[in-house]
From TrEMBL:
The keyword Magnesium applies. It is found in: Cytoplasm. Its main location: cytoplasm. This is Hypoxanthine phosphoribosyltransferase. One of its GO terms (cellular component) is cytosol. It catalyses: IMP + diphosphate = hypoxanthine + 5-phospho-alpha-D-ribose 1-diphosphate; GMP + diphosphate = guanine + 5-phospho-alpha-D-ribose 1-diphosphate. It comes from Roseisalinus antarcticus. The keyword Magnesium applies. Belongs to the purine/pyrimidine phosphoribosyltransferase family. Residues 16-162 form the Phosphoribosyltransferase domain. Its EC number is 2.4.2.8. GO terms for molecular function: guanine phosphoribosyltransferase activity; hypoxanthine phosphoribosyltransferase activity; magnesium ion binding; nucleotide binding. Transmembrane segments: none annotated.
Length: 181
């Protein structure tokens, strides 16, 4: 059931996100300094704001592609079965690939997507997630780079939704139900 009785408490400011992305971009540039072309793969839809800001900090030869995996739907609980709903448009065999995700929660999505893309023999396959909830992990998966570790709270904003709303908030906020309405 989709609830409407909630307020959003800011957890990570737009300024803190920008500063963190700037710092991460240096690590990514160091890793891929020798690349002739980096394919940056955003996982739809939650990563669309993060990938937009991230690629603008990378002065590397970059291509952008997208992949959509099944996720939360409109609810707040994770599905353990991950399906590929929309595949990449481009080839990644022999290429350097950076997969960009919004949140690592149970770990099923990024673990499965990494395995799936790994079968196409990319030269290097790395993963980055803006947020990580280590307390929720169900599979042994660790992204190569993480923006922020957060507690087990349901968050929205900066591309991340609750029932398709709130993606356009410039900050990350925590959903707090009020029990009113
Ligand atoms: P995992 O497969 O790691 O359990 O789930 C990852 C996906 O669950 C994320 O890409 C995201 O779509 C969704 N997710 C996990 N935590 C949250 C959250 O706090 N808020 C929202 N809106 N989605 C979340
Ligand atoms: Mg997602
Ligand atoms: Mg979602």
């Amino acid at each position: 059931m989709v609830r409407t009785d909630y307020v959003i408490d800011e957890m990570i400011s737009a300024k803190a996100i920008a500063a963190r992305i700037e710092a991460l971009s240096h690590l990514i540039k160091a890793e891929f300094s020798d690349t002739s072309k980096l394919v940056v793969v955003g996982l739809l839809r939650g990563s669309f704001v993060f990938i937009a800001d991230l690629v603008r900090e990378l002065d590397l030869p970059v291509e952008v592609d997208f992949l959509e995996a099944s996720s939360y739907g409109d609810g707040m609980t994770s599905s353990r079965e991950v399906r590929i709903l929309k595949d990449l448009r481009g080839e990644i065999s022999g290429r350097d690939v950076l997969v960009v995700e919004d949140i690592v929660d149970t770990g099923h999505t990024l673990a499965r997507v990494s395995e799936y893309l790994g079968t196409r023999t990319p030269a290097r396959l790395r993963t980055i997630a803006l947020l990580d909830k280590p307390a929720r992990r169900e599979v042994d998966f660790k992204a190569d780079w993480i923006g922020f570790e957060i507690p087990d709270e349901f968050v929205v904003g900066y591309g991340i939704d609750y029932a398709q709303r709130n993606r356009n908030l410039p900050f990350i906020g925590k959903v707090r139900f009020t029990g009113e309405g």
